[in-house]
Amino acid sequence: MISERQYRSQIVHFGKMLHQRGYVAATDGNLSVLCSGNRILATPTCMSKGTLRPADVVAVDTEGRSLGGGRSVSSEIGMHLLIYKLRPDVRAIVHAHPPTATGFAAAGLALNQPLVCEVVIGLGSIPLAGYGTPGTPELAESLAPLVAEYDAILMSNHGVVAYGDTLDNAYMKMETVEHFAQIALVTHLLGRQQPLGEPELQKLFVARTNYQKARCEATSPGSDGNRQGNHSKRSLRTGRTGRTGLNVAQSEG
Q1: Range of the domain at 73
Q2: What CA–CA distance (Å, rounded) separates 217 from 225?
Q3: Taking Cα atoms as reference points, which of 93, 11, 19 lies closest to residue 56?
Q4: Does residue 215 belong to any structural domain of this protein?
């Protein structure tokens, strides 16, 4: 079992990585981890993710009520609470504004073209949620229809949220979204896209299923293993329904 002290150190570590990679600026972004006992550790409001210390991390309950500490929790904690409620397999969330992916979100474009096989296996598709004012229930409401079937979502005119069973996996999904957005942007600049066809996608969905199954079997027994098993089953459903989320279009140009 990971201690709360270790979780706090993880939040500080990945917060600094977000800042160093330019995925957040000033006091943007937020991270959280769901600990045992339904205790949530989250980044505080109005602090740069590049200067966080473990003592700055805030503890709240599943209703967002403070459980102590000298700082206030992020105003976007409602988004985190919604994801934890709708996805029992999720234990960590990362929200950031990576420039290229956020550019797609600001342009009203989802990242749903099957252009890169690794992205299809890892995330399936990255949809675009409607706009919701940050720090208000509107933001959570805009995400609600998508959370159950996707592990990363673009938020219109806002940024990206990614989540997983660990903070490390949630962060890596954020990296994958930004990397894929950069590749998609190049195809737009070249004026040509060559999406994978249905036969190729069928093979990738099989690979995705096997990948998720292997992750499930690699998890040790116990409560964490059960949560991972639930994640695997949900991911397999995403793999099947992901075919409708991916926009298999003809090549441009």
Answers
A1: 4-190
A2: 9
A3: 11
A4: no
Spatial separation of the C-alpha atoms in residues 52 and 229, rounded to whole Å: 33
Rg (CA), the chain: 18
The total of structural domains in the chain comes to: 1
Identify whether 76 is a catalytic site residue. Answer: yes
Residue pointed to by tokens 């990948």:
211
Choose the catalytic residue: 63, 76, 217, 252: 76
Residue 66 included in any domain? yes
d(CA 32, CA 166): 10
CA nearest neighbour of 94 among 68, 76, 67, 108: 76
**Residue 247: inside a domain:** no
Q: Kindly report the CATH number assigned to the domain that includes residue 131.
A: 3.40.225.10
Q: Give CA 220 to chain center in angstroms.
A: 24
Q: How far apart are CA 11 and CA 71, in angstroms?
A: 15
Say how many C-beta atoms besides its own lie within 10 A of residue 222's C-beta: 10
Q: Which residue has the higher pLDDT, 209 or 215?
A: 209
Q: Quick check: is 111 in a domain?
A: yes
User: pLDDT tens digit string along 100-148?
Assistant: 999 999 999 999 999 999 999 889 899 999 999 998 999 999 999 999 9
